[in-house]
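Anyone else keep sequences and structure tokens together like this?

Example one:
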Amino acid sequence: MAQFTRIEVAQIMKDTGMVPLFFHKDIEVSKKVLKACYDGGARLLEFTARGDFAHEVFGELTKYAIAELPGMVMGVGSVTDAAQASMYMALGANFIVTPVLREDIAIVCNRRKVLWSPGCGTLTEITRAEELGCEIVKLFPGDIYGPQFVKGIKGPQQWTSIMPTGGVSPTKENLSAWFAAGVTCVGMGSKLMAKDADGNFDYNKIEEMTRNALNIIKDLKN
């Protein structure tokens, strides 16, 4: 069951401005990445459940967050249908992110008052998502549309909250473009999850990059 309400999750997304994205099949590696993000100041993490037995890893990761990382909001991405969304909510997901707009997912999330963020790519999809109760729309893939698309959407729909995912990097130049266009927050995956020369996750670097990105975003929002 979710530890945070949909409104609380939306507010944390807005306040911090960034949602790290991550998946790994190994629970111990996942814990260390989550801890690095947390120590860097992140208060949300989207576990992009794309591998076999991902639900088992997420369940353990959520228990770890509840026990050891107070205030950490755990969510799940790459969710494909209502059944999968329901399973992850039973495992403690506080928010559900999908690559596409699916009304069946909206229904099961709304029933439990869990925030859901569907991947949208047109104004019609964004409007439909909002009609279905979406608080923050995921713009995906973000690098295909870019900040100019966000600016165009915010013209006629100033109330729309957008989170681009894909094409977001932890640099001042990139983040400045997105936030100047009017995004509420950004989803950041591979560009944030630093690795060393051997291809292993560099936990210290992830913590450092998370902290730097959040500081940049804070300055941009103030």
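And example two:
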Amino acid sequence: MAAAHFLALLIPGVDFLLIARSAVSSGWRTASGACLGIALANGIFIAAAFSGLALISHPTLLGLIQTAGGLFLIFIGAAFLRSSARISVINEPAVPSNTWGKNLGLGFASGLLNPKNALFYVALASGLSSAGTGELMLYGAWMFAVVLFWDLFVAVALGSDRALAKLTRFLPWITKAAGGFLVLLGTGMIFTLIVGLVR
């Protein structure tokens, strides 16, 4: 699950573009506000998804959620496999220079208003239904930390157009690898559930 989470972070989305644009226009220090805001929003989704596991006790309901989570991961993985994964902040309209605090708010709103974040963490959480409270807390802390440090790395690395162009060369390969892994993970979740029902 931790590996799937990290691979999914590598694929550019709205959050990635916000960080990249902020870094290019205002520098990585100002963009770090957006990084923290995005991480905090993800932290809310992580806490909600993992806390929800403790509230689900009916095996049928848990099985349905795990099935839906597996199908969602397969869907996202297939989308990654089909994606051309091209990014560009150079040709986009210029972003006005913002303060660190404004970027914090923008990052938080971007992460919180992205429904894919919520669905992704629910899907991952459904695959950890047998984990104990301590293990879930470790997973949650790991995911929050990875989101924050990866976004900070992106902000520092993409402080120039040259760095962004270099990343674009490798992005298609990263996208395909992440897509294949998510498809396998989702398939494995559903297969494990079916095996459990047959026994």
